[in-house]
Structure formats: C-alpha cells, structure tokens
Amino acid sequence: MSLSISLTINRQSRTVTLDDPRVTLLDLLREHLYLTGTKKGCDRGQCGACTVLVDGRRINSCLSLAASLDGAEITTIEGLAVGEALHPVQAAFIACDGFQCGYCTPGQIMSAVGLIAEGRAGSDPERIRELMSGNLCRCGAYQGITEAVLEAQK
Ligand code: FES
After folding, report:
1. Which of 53, 79, 105 marks a domain boundary?
2. Atom of ligand 1 nearest to the CA of 43
3. Fewest CB within a 10 Å sphere: which of 81, 110, 113, 151?
4. How many domains in the chain?
C-alpha cells in the first residue's frame, strides 16, 4: 500500500509517494530524492553520519520513518549554502580543518548547525565535544571540529 506525504526539503515543497511505509528518512533522501550529501554509516543510530534537521532539530535520519514526518521541514547539507555563499558553519569547518576524509562531515556540520541554533554550544570545548558526541569521526578530527563550532559562533 503506497502512502503520500508532504515535506518541505531545503525550502522546497515536495510531495513524495512511499511504496513502502517502512522507508527511513535517510533512504528517502538518498535513494528516492538523490540527496546523497547525507551519508549512511551504521544505519542504526550509532555514528551520526546521517544527521539532518527536522523542524530545526538534529536527528539521525536512519532512525526516523519518513511516513511519520508528513508536514515536516527537513534541512540537509545541500540546503545550507545560499548560491555560492557557504553557511557560516561550512566556512568554519574549512577554516579550522574540521575534517579529514570527509565522510562524516555532512553529519558533523548538520549537528553543529542544530547545536548552535539550540543556543547550547557555548565556548567550552569539552562541553562542545560532549554535545557533539553523537557524531563519530573515524579519522579523529575532533580538535578541528570543535574549533569549527567555536569559530562559527563568532
Ligand atoms: Fe544513522 Fe549511523 S547512519 S547514525
């Protein structure tokens, strides 16, 4: 049984038909809408590579059923830059070398954007690490990531 839902994705209204009501938001984004900036790491809520914003809050899209999000506003990494202008968090990640291989970077950036929007990031690097702990970086670029979160708030 198919199901239609309406979403706003990166400021664009979309109506999508789900042939399988069990499809996750992550698979909807990547496999159906070809927004492949959002990455699949563990597919079980452990790595944060799939982080996107739903109604402004950061979530693991691999744990969220698309069918439960009718009417929601989704922001992915593709929706941050405006034209050629990078989002301040994207620019800060570049300025601070907040990545190495880059696979976790979209999730890290989306988590940082959500954290800063929550107003909880603050200026304590240890606290930022704790609040970003749902996003793993196998390369260990945590120092640059933390510096980028600090830089983006200036
Ligand atoms: Fe979703 Fe790892 S892919 S948390």
Report:
1. 79
2. 3
3. 81
4. 2
**Predicted-assembly ipTM surpassing the 0.95 threshold:** yes
- HSE of 123, CA atoms in CB hemisphere, 13 A: 2
For the Cβ of 46 lying below 6 angstroms from any atom of ligand 1, the answer is yes
**Ligand 1 pocket residue status of 134, Cβ below 6 Å:** no
Q: Note down the domain range covering 53.
A: 3-79
Asked if 50 contacts 69 with a C-beta cutoff of 8 angstroms, the reply is no
Q: How far is the CA of 40 from the centre of ligand 1 (A)?
A: 6
Tell me the CA–centroid distance for residue 76 and ligand 1, in Å: 14
Which pLDDT does position 64 carry in this prediction?
98
Decide which of 54, 79, 104 is a domain's last residue. Answer: 79
pLDDT in tens, 133-154: 999 999 999 999 999 999 999 9
